Amino acid sequence: MEATKRTTATYLSEILKTTSDAFTSGTWMYPVYGIVYLGSHPSLYSSVAPIAGKCVLVSLGITAGMFVFTYIPQLAFCALFSGPLAFIPAAVMVLGEAYVLSSLVTKMFFLGPAQDKIFDAVLLQQGNEALVARGREVKTNPSGMKTLGKTITKPLDRFSRDGIIRYLLSIPLNSIPVVGTLLFLLLNGRKSGPGYHSRYFQLKGFSNESRSNFIESKRGAYTAFGAASLALQLVPFVGTAFSITSTVGAALWAHELEKGKGRLNTAHETDVDVKID
Fold it and tell me: Taking a C-beta distance cutoff of 8 angstroms, is the pair 75, 67 a contact?
């Protein structure tokens, strides 16, 4: 019994520390930085706009269908816990389920290969050519503009069966107003956050052990980034498009990790020709 109490206390202590580190890390702002950065870089925006448009259309259709067929049953379920406020958690639950379906479809058909190229483009714009060249051809055209070529590394597998199962099992947490939704975001953010740096780890050549140690040393920061990214992606209809801006934000964070700076390097940006098929 004493051992169980100590184990529980240790587990709760770790959760509280991670949560505290998440809120104080400031990395929850990077998904927002990604939105601003993409909007202020026309060459990057013009390349990803068609993909973002397709993601929005897919999300629109899936989300509308989910509300038509699943909202009422979940409203009745949430009424058991939330009473007259049940419409709020019920809507969040439907949005969460729609996000899963939208994410699966868009990553399978649109986003998968594009995310690595977007990540590389932002790193290159921030002056990390040597790092990007470890995983992709980088060329300079006659006008001096950098061009991203074909990848020379194995494409990343961005699907996580365990992640999807964990996400679906945690959706009922949203039936608890405010606290439940916060726990839902933190729980899933803790696991999904490091995924946004999968390309960074690949370019760095991290072993599985090095990757695990690096993530653990920044567990709170990755939790904050993942939770903020997930919150944006739950925005009705346009949420899946935020996968792109979160990828941009992750690349900006990777740049700061490389340079060890406290702010973004905008003084030495280079324009990059990004063509995404």
Answer: no
Please give the helix or strand (H or E) that residue 138 lies within, else none.
Answer: strand 136-140
Q: Please write the tens of the pLDDT for every residue from 166-215.
A: 888 888 887 787 888 888 899 899 989 999 999 999 999 999 999 999 99
Helices (H), 40-196: 42-82, 87-106, 112-125, 129-132, 161-170, 179-192
Euclidean distance between CA atoms 214 and 104, whole angstroms? 28
Q: What is the mean pLDDT of residues 264-271?
A: 55
pTM over 0.85: no
Spatial CA neighbour of 184 closest among 131, 223, 241: 223
DSSP 8-state class, residue 250: H
Q: How far apart are CA 130 and CA 31, in angstroms?
A: 25
Burial class (CB in 10 A: 0-12, 13-18, 19+), 71: middle
What crossing angle do the helices spanning 42-82 and 87-106 adopt, rounded to 10°? 140
